[in-house]
Amino acid sequence: MKTWIKVLLSLAVVGVLAAIAVYFFVYNKPHVNYEKAEPEITIRADDLFFEFVSNPEEAGQKYNGKVLQITGMLDDIESSEEMTFAVFAFSEGMFGKEGVRCSMLNAHAKELKSTNVGVELTIKGYCTGFTGTDVILEHGSIIE
After folding, report:
1. What is the CA radius of gyration of the chain?
2. How far, in Å, CA of 127 to CA of 88, rounded?
3. Would the pLDDT of 70 be above 90?
4. CA atoms within 13 A on the CB side of 49
5. DSSP H or E run through 72
6. Which of 15, 47, 90, 105 has its CA at 20 to 30 Å from residue 26's CA atom?
7. What is each CA distance from 56 to 49, 60, 64, 71, 93, in whole angstroms?
8. Backbone angles phi, psi at 130, to 5 degrees
9. Would strands 41-44 and 134-142 be described as parallel, antiparallel, or unpaired?
10. Residue 54 near residue 48 (C-beta atoms within 8 A)
11. Helices (DSSP H) in 23-130: which residue ranges?
12. What residues have CB less than 8 Å from 74, skipping those under 6 apart?
């Protein structure tokens, strides 16, 4: 009987230590500051889009999960209540413009809204993938 109590107590101690480790190393992990992150790859927006169109799997392995710095002609600015997107369009699809869409950080959304469409713009963002029509970047910031 005493052996079972010792086993249960040691399992309980291991469980509590595991829960504490998960809290400190996983749950409480600091967030990445994408505005200050160094870009891993610098590329033109049209080159990025056409790489994904020609070979989505290979381009996904190369760019997904990385901070990219893209430069291109700003084609449109889309806004909703909470999000602002910079759109670099390179073709017209069944559902509208296709290209690179970058959701902006709140600190850069106002600056983007005051930017004229049709200007050359450099944006840094985190690449999350290709939807079949658009390359998606998140946490975008305008590079001066």
Report:
1. 22
2. 14
3. yes
4. 20
5. strand 67-73
6. 105
7. 10, 6, 10, 20, 17
8. -125, 130
9. unpaired
10. no
11. 45-54, 56-63, 106-113
12. 86, 87, 88, 115, 116, 117, 118, 119, 120, 121
